[in-house]
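Can't paste images in this forum, so I'm doing it all in text. The chain is below; anyone willing to post the predicted structure tokens underneath?
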Amino acid sequence: MTNPGGHGVSALCRVLGISRSTYYSWLAARPAAAARERAEDELAGEIRRIHAGSRGAYGAPRVHAALRRNGHRISRKKVERIMRERDIRGITRRKRRSLTRADTKAAPSPDLVGRGFTAGEPGRKLVGDITY
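Text version of the structure:
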């Protein structure tokens, strides 16, 4: 490996405060890291294709399931990480809806308690409330 300043590996490692074996192990790991990045880029292309096929609706769990159906052996967490790093997000198309709808034509319930919630003895006034 050539250095722009013409300095040796020993001098550079001494200045950086690392051992030469650390430098050489880093240098040896570079081809594996490059191959891993290439594989992840290919996988990201497949994820984008699946995501686009769902019109952007699929998130990591569904994309993971589709990848598994296509024969990829991959963990869901790796799919999540690749989608997060490349800013691929699923969307929710469901509209919020309430569980109950008020009947606008119905007469309101009469106030039998008269807004007085204190009772002289237990069991005389029983009230309830349904709140979202």
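The mean pLDDT is 84. Residues 9-85 form one domain.
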